[in-house]
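Objective 1.3, modelling of assemblies. Example input:
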Amino acid sequence: MTDATDDVVLLSGVRFSWQAASPPVVAVDSLRVRRGERLMLRGPSGSGKSTLLSLLAGVLTAQGGSVRVLGHELGALTGSARDRFRADHIGVIFQLFNLIPYLSVLENVCLPCAFSHRRRNRCEQSGNSVRDVATRLLDHLDMGDRELQGRQVTELSVGQQQRVAAARSLMGAPELVLADEPTSSLDGNRRAAFLELLFRECELERTTLIFVTHDATLAPLFDRTVEFEDLNRIADGSPVTETGGDDR
Amino acid sequence: MILPLAIKSLRNRRLTAGLTVLSIALAVALLLGVERIRHESRETFANSVSGTDLIVGARTSPVNLLLSSVFRIGNATNNMRWESYRRIAALPEVAWTIPLSLGDSHRGFHVLGTTRDYFDHFRFGQDRKLELVEGERFADASGTVLGADVAAALGYRVGQQIVIAHGSGDVAFALHKDHPFRVVGILARTGTPVDRAIHVSLEGMDAVHATESAEDGADPLAAAMRNAKQREMQGASRNDHDHDHGQLGIGENGSSARTITAVLVGLKARNKALFLQRQVNESKDEPLTAILPGVTLLDVWDIVAGAEKTLIAISALVVIMGLAGMLIALLTSLGERRREMAVLRALGARPWHVFALLLGEAAFLTLVGIVLGVAALYVALAAGKPWLEQGLGLFIAPRSPSSAEFGLMMLVAASGVLIGLIPAYRIYRLSLADGMTIRI
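Predicted structure (tokens):
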């Protein structure tokens, strides 16, 4: 049992295609990610990385194989149970447009607690209010300025927006954080700084991080790097264009 | 938790949201206003005459007779002779009569020549009698009793002298300074055309017209004599007050050129009304028309029903256009909101949250629109009150919405929610398809 809980992600024989007749865009025979691990999934854009993240988050379900996250077989859960599971256990950071434009910085960070009792309770366990936790997280991500926290998110720079998104993904200490190229819109120096901040926060709660990127230069910072093209064995061997799937 | 999000999202788009609400509010105000005026005009009409079994006037269409005699809309084309009136009043089936003489005005208000029977027998609303709030009934040719609106609008008090002009309208041509009237009483408000009438005795009416003919170059001596005669008669009439119609001032044998516009008739037994109506209509002496007010009122409704339906249909279309505007605004917002929904989905929002967010927004816009529309209607009715009363003779008292109006509001609200289902379903489908991938 300890083994099972230690495996945050366990994939076997996963097959996913957008339409039943079309060839799969994701075909992962096996992937195992342990608790607290910082995994980099590297691959060119359009290789199906984002689709794999959607499968891990339970937004999409695989047609074949097994997707186990934190010991739960996601395919066996109902749609709303998967939504609840995601709300409770998974934080997500996107490449861009992470934030709700009409909410303030602080409100954006507090948002996961609105959708998950578990994460709200976790925040409040420490004896702090949700806002206190959000403020502390922003402090840790060099966004401590109170004036900044009250601002509309549309007034922030891209780098600031990504740090707000990181703070939000960490609210209420989810076990797994999925990051989909969050640094690709940042310049080199800021990338490393952003990652350092993210790693530091993940370590505090032993949060597992799966980080998708096409940028190999960041690889040394991670515990493990998986080349997505090695992982994803699509039948004919040629990557299926991701845009073809996304525009569906 | 979805609600504060929806409110903040709307606040972010307050310009389009505000315009949407505005168009719905105006549409609702129009719809309810048409319904309110339709209902109130019927009420006003139905309340204006009560307890009168027959109305008799010179030969004309029944609707015209009813409108001109009771509602003071339009003018009677002909008057009926005094002798004909006497004959009707003397019929054994007749319990009481109220002669009405119209055609004069004072500063835009109709002058009604009648007798003291008016105060005894006239009924309005649910069999209510006229009451004086001040002063007393007129007793002679120079006394006048004002309706509540006349007194309020012109600021007249008991004891004041007024001058009456011939012809009705805001600007009357001939002023009769020779026969000024004195205000002796003011009636309590009735919410009917009575409020807008200046009541004088038939003798007073005669005196006005006598001076008029004198001014016009007719024999001044004759007019003077007639005036003298009338005064004499009035003196006498006070004594035989209880006589059936003695207070009219001119006896059975009085050879008068007097004419009246119409007469309201009350019968001893209601079931004689049809019989008497036929008798009057077939009268050989003078072509007359007798109507049963209730029956003729139904004819009036038949005439206006078409116009009412058209108005309701137009305002319903305006409401539909207001709601269509909301649909357009919501659908165009979906493009940018797709991204927002994908973020919410990634944070754990379920598809129905996304659905509810859009539906709630539509419902909220519609409800605010309805509330503002009702408020706008009340403001408009209060502001337009003088115009409605003077221009249309509509007496619209402020009151809470009727069940029919609540029904209309519910219908608009339901339509708004129903229309909200369209963008809600669209964003629901989109959010399912998008998942977390938000590259648009």
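The interface with chain A takes residues 1, 5, 8-9, 11-12, 339-340, 343-351, 353, 433, 435-439 of chain B (CB under 8 Å).
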